[in-house]
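User: Show me a protein chain along with its predicted structure.
Assistant: Here is one chain, sequence first, then structure tokens.
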Amino acid sequence: MSIKAMTTGFLSFIFILIFLGCSYSTDFYIQNLTGTKRIITINYHYPVSKAINNDSVSFGFHYENEILSPKAFRKIKKLKSLEKIEMKDSAIVLEVPPNSTTRIDKSYNGRWRYMIKSVEVDGKVFNTEDLQNKTKFISNDYIYKIE
């Protein structure tokens, strides 16, 4: 093997590693471990009502009627969609079913921490710092458990 071929192969390998390491999935989930539905309000740092009109796919809240790991959640091909109860200028109100896992934000590199201002669960408001402290971190994903 020539030195040119080895150099090209090595540089290609490094190039691929750099691009693979740039972005990683950091989805944010809420698991309702109780037997009753819970009302949550997601408050954003920006006017979400305008963003939904431009990109409604990013604001689709999916769930499953099971307590699932993020890995198991991602394997499901046909996820159920939550309907938005109310949309305010910078907030969305959702009803989370009992004993379910809901993906609140599908993001990369922890972007949800900068987009979401706070989450209100049954009248208790948690800012993103509180949420990070109360969430379970599993393989780059964040899971907040309602108990």
